[in-house]
Design goal:
By secondary structure, the protein is an alpha/beta fold. It has 17 helices and 18 strands. A hairpin with a 2-residue loop joins strand 17 and strand 18. It starts with a helix and ends in a 10-residue tail after the last helix.
């Protein structure tokens, strides 16, 4: 036997021994205890500045985690292992949507069917705490679900019926404590918050070890803001407040630039955000879909996929649909082009960008909207590796999970997608996911298609009950709102 053959044989022996040790070290599972092996796949590594694709690999999964990654010839599964033949398909980390609004469990499958294996819900209800637990325990198929509590806001022009309203420090502290007692560990703040309430939210969150994300609070909106007079809370004050992410690039332009479309000022603002090390969730799609409704005089509202939107949400959004169907197209197109430029500057100056779609509201369709967002990030000027990182590694970094999520690596969560084509060549390949591994559970294309069917089967009564329960939990009388 020559030296090269000897080395290969030795490597195979080491891999087999490592696999045996891993098997012996693991406790018996409550179910079948079955290993899952993705055999003969090409692994897409997005960890460096340039994406790297390595073919001829196999990935062994157990109990929701990746236990072993080796060449295909180095892993010989036993008869108890479930083997999925990859046939050279590409495996990459599952996608993360950092800004969604889930109204009912029906929509969960729409995310998985589009390769989204983690979502961060940005407007919490008791429903979400239950769903997150059921998904984590394997009782329900769906993406890993992270959620904020109910949105904390003060009365003002951006208020919505599902917001939890606080004005004073005392009200804000009580609201944060209540959310913590209910089981929430993440808070979302909104733009109308008074200074007193916002500062109390931050202080109470620190005491209870809760994270904060959201729109940057501006204080009480007064006539003439922002052009004739500054906001009560300056954007710069927010930058050292420890927000996990700042949401919406249009909100950054509105608050941080006082809605001035000034390129030089935008570049300087991007530098200050980067220096403060605050991640940004651009959600370009949130404004883009508004623009598309205006450009098509409302026809865009009936495009393919909108059957996945909650009918209750659609029914309550009619006034907004009517408004945007008749909006000024040139003015809003110019605004969107500036939002893309702002996003480009944020990227170029080193701001950590994460991908969020704002799915579940207006006409932002669950699941597919994240792919739309990624394509808009590329349109804004990010290269494809940067775009893919925004939906994989960057969210893990922003959430403090880089040691356990966001990559195809041993010890990481087994949240993976299988693709027929390379997304670094064309992001459109993300629109035809071949299979998904979510928390270690394998779902082939037939199963994913079935999830899409279920996601379109809405239960309006159940959705309304979810909202009523949420309003009662935050001290709001649903009957006063006609629910």
């Amino acid at each position: 036997m020559d030296s090269e053959s000897t080395m290969k044989a030795f490597a195979k022996l080491v891999a087999s021994f490592s696999l045996l040790l891993a098997t012996l070290a693991m406790p018996a599972r409550a179910d079948t205890g079955q290993f899952l092996l993705l055999r003969n796949v090409s692994i897409l590594d997005l960890d460096g500045d340039e994406a790297v694709l390595t073919s001829g690999m196999s990935i062994l999964i157990w109990d929701g985690k990746i236990t072993t990654i080796a060449t295909t010839e180095e892993i010989e599964p036993d008869t108890a292992t479930r083997v999925i033949e990859g046939d050279g398909r590409i495996v990459m980390a599952g996608l993360v949507d950092m800004h969604v609004h889930i109204w009912d469990r029906a929509s969960l499958g729409a995310y998985l069917a589009h390769g989204v294996t983690t979502v961060r819900n940005a407007s919490g209800m008791p429903l979400h705490l239950r769903l997150a637990s059921q998904i984590e325990k394997g009782m329900l198929a769906g993406p890993r679900l992270l959620t904020s509590g109910p949105i904390l806001n003060s009365p003002g022009p951006n208020q919505q019926i599902n917001h939890q309203f606080v004005t004073t420090a005392e009200e804000a502290r009580a609201a944060v404590r209540s959310q913590h007692e209910q089981g929430y560990r993440h808070l979302k703040v909104h733009s109308n918050l008074t200074r007193e309430a916002y500062e109390a939210v931050l202080d109470e969150a620190a005491i209870l070890d809760m994270t904060v994300m959201g729109h940057t609070p501006e204080g009480v909106r007064q006539k003439g803001m922002p052009v004739e007079m500054p906001f009560q809370i300056a954007f710069e004050e927010i930058l050292d407040d420890g927000l996990v992410t700042i949401e919406h690039v249009e909100s950054i332009v509105w608050h941080g630039l006082r809605d001035r479309h000034d390129e030089a000022a935008a570049r300087e603002l991007a530098k200050r955000i980067a220096a403060a090390n605050v991640p940004v969730d651009a959600t370009l799609l949130a404004f883009y879909n508004l623009l598309r409704v205006a450009e098509t005089n409302g026809e865009y509202l009936g495009r393919e996929g909108t059957g996945l939107m909650s009918p209750l949400l659609v029914a309550t959004s009619q006034a907004e649909y009517d408004r945007w169907s008749n909006e000024d197209v040139p003015r809003n197109r110019a605004a969107f082009e500036f939002y893309k430029l702002m996003t480009k500057y944020l990227s170029e100056e080193g701001v950590l960008l994460v991908a969020g779609s704002d799915a579940g509201i207006f006409t932002n369709v669950p699941g597919m909207s994240l792919i739309d967002e990624l394509e808009l990030l590329e349109e804004a000027g990010l290269d494809r590796t940067q775009v893919l990182r925004a939906a994989t590694i960057n969210p893990a970094i922003a959430l403090g999970e880089e040691a356990s999520a966001g990559r195809v690596a041993e010890g990481h969560r087994a949240d993976l997608i299988l693709l027929d084509d390379d997304p670094t060549k064309d992001l459109a390949s993300l629109r035809s996911v071949s299979a998904v591994v979510a928390g270690g559970d394998f779902h082939d294309r037939a199963a994913l298609d079935a999830m899409l069917v279920t996601a379109a089967e809405h239960d309006i009564g159940r959705t309304q009950a979810n909202l009523v329960e949420a309003l009662k939990a935050q001290g709001t009388d649903p009957a006063a709102l006609g629910l």
